[in-house]
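Usage

Read records sequentially. Each one opens with the input sequence:
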Amino acid sequence: MQHEMKSLTNHFKMDSAQQYIRRRITKGRRGRIIFSQDFAQCGTQNAVRLAFFRLVQEGLIIRVAQGIYWYPKIEKELGLGVLLPDTDTIAYAVAARDNAHIVPEANAALNMLGFSTQVPANTVYLTSGVGRRINLHIGKGNSILFKHTSDGSLFAYKSKVMLLLVLSLREIGANLREDEKELIRKHLSHISKKDYDHDIQYVPGWIRDLFIAL
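and closes with the structure output:
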């Protein structure tokens, strides 16, 4: 009898944790990353783990990676249904949680700015935080790799375009083709004077000289 009462109590606690977590999730906007660790106060570790498992089974949330979930957007106009998060959304949410800064690695920057058509197989970010790999359970099952960098200047840029240009040029080097120079001019024209004046102090000298020569 005592064993049955204990079992019923545990079941009630798990149900209560699930209901409370569901309420907290559904009160917020759709299209956001959720971390199970943020709900640690909702019950025992086992109750919280089981609650998230049930909410995934129920279809309320999607498991993105270990301890990371997605409260999905639902696209109805075009009939696309549940929309999955892109790697940027996941990576920047993880960085915000860890109070870290991240920037794309050079290969991604090259692709973003049109210097390369090659899409990196795995998504890599340079981070001010701890380096690690997050294995994804959505999409093609790729991973997000965070590489620690001590180059704090990378996180000082106000213009994302300027940052991507610097990352790209560090990879390409100073010997540029004419079409690459034209692409640089085009991207520089999209940077506001205020951001340019701020960011140019962080640009490596040889890249600064290149910009002036253009």
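Summary fields computed downstream for this record:
- The domain at 7-83 is CATH 1.10.10.10 (Arc Repressor Mutant, subunit A).
- Residues 1-12 have pLDDT under 50 and may be disordered.
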